[in-house]
Amino acid sequence: KNIKKYIDRLRPLEGKTIKIEVQVLAFGDKVAIVGIPGEMFTEMGMKIKENSPFEITIISGYTNGYIGYIPTPEAYESLSYESTVTIIEKDSCRKIYETAVNLLEKLKS
To answer: What DSSP element (H or E) covers 28?
Structure first.
């Protein structure tokens, strides 16, 4: 029942361009928080952390909205549950990752 509510709420957005906001906040020069409006796969969150110029980077999902699952490109190939119910295109995870890392680098400099 809950998944039906989730799908019914997001389905009208399918096939449309969705603009989302990725936020990056810094606390001093060692700690940063990346806010993403969805549920990003752990692998991509870890990749953001690994490529962040900050000593500590925290990934916060469900921030400033919710676009559903944000699967990795590999998840689409394996037809994971999340990749079959998401409304976003296969390349979205990479775009969000690149945006987050670019913002982190800008904020650090």
So the answer is: none
Find tokens 């389905």 and name the residue: 11
The span from the CA of 5 to the CA of 93, in Å, is 24
- Residue 106 phi/psi, 5° resolution? -60, -45
- Euclidean distance between CA atoms 79 and 85, whole angstroms: 10
Identity of the residue numbered 1: K
Tell me the C-alpha distance between 21 and 6, whole Å: 20
Contacts with 12 (C-beta within 8 Å, 6 or more apart), sequence order: none
CB 21 within 8 A of CB 68: no
Secondary structure (3-state) at 22 = coil
Q: pLDDT tens digits for the chain (109 residues)?
A: 566 676 676 667 667 777 889 999 999 999 999 999 999 999 999 999 999 999 999 999 999 888 889 999 888 888 888 888 888 888 899 999 999 999 999 999 8
Q: Which of 20, 2, 15, 12 is nearest to 96 (CA)?
A: 20
